[in-house]
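Deliverable D4.2, example record:
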Amino acid sequence: MSLPTPLEDQLRSRLDRATHEVPGLGDLDDAVTRGRRRRAVRAAATVTSAVAGVAVVATGVALALGAGQRPVPRAAVPAAAPAAPAAATSDHVPGSDVDETMAAVVADHVARAGTATSVYPSDWTRSNPLPVARFASATEWQAHYRVGSGEDLTVLMSQRPTDAPAGAAVCDDSGRVVDGRGARIRLGDIGPGGSVVVVPGGAAQGESPCVARTLPGGVLVLVHGGARTTATFWRTSDATVVTVSSTLTTTAAGDRQVTDAELEGVATDPRLAFAHTSDPPAWPAANGPGWPAGL
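Output generated by the structure prediction step:
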């Protein structure tokens, strides 16, 4: 018999897939650096050509005039003004305003959100973006931010799958146990003989790793799990779930820049909405439960 898996762990798995490097979407800083490098090469080539052209003109003038003749002065031609750099844009998905809305919501709630590395539509069968032209078929939207060298911020909003199995109630610990050190692990992580196979991020003794609050329109769940803190709003008013996660990569927990309140502010912002597709793909069994029981 398989033991129940808390829905928060399923969301953690989906976020793990979402935060992997997305094929075809380069880092914004790298793109800027490459652009500057290409502009520098073009500028150098232009200067070299200009210098060579001046030398050829000067030589031609000297040969044509001959000795003892003075050149006729010519009006100076003003140098062309340098081309203005292309304006930066936050339109990651042309034709849709969902990406701009996600960026605006993060900017309004998170004081130090860092740099947006990618914003894109996707669906629950993949961890990479949908083609831009198919954004209307998206079952979810994702936004990824590099807050600093040791922290990432991820925003994922998804429509409710109608063919997915129901999960346990929010913050249901029936599938977890607590060891002597206060680390919370899943029963399914315990192998034969009591050996622990996997130890997910745990909470310190006495700390509540999961807190749920009923709000107008849904239920807000805040989960502290080791390097990751996640705020999830199960929005029953329009069958949408918004999950906002801060993940530490190299930074110590005390240096986390995105606060719990900021995560909750993004998750509960009513502007985070999109037109749900009426013909979504089948819910993959590997995704686990799709919606908590009782909601």
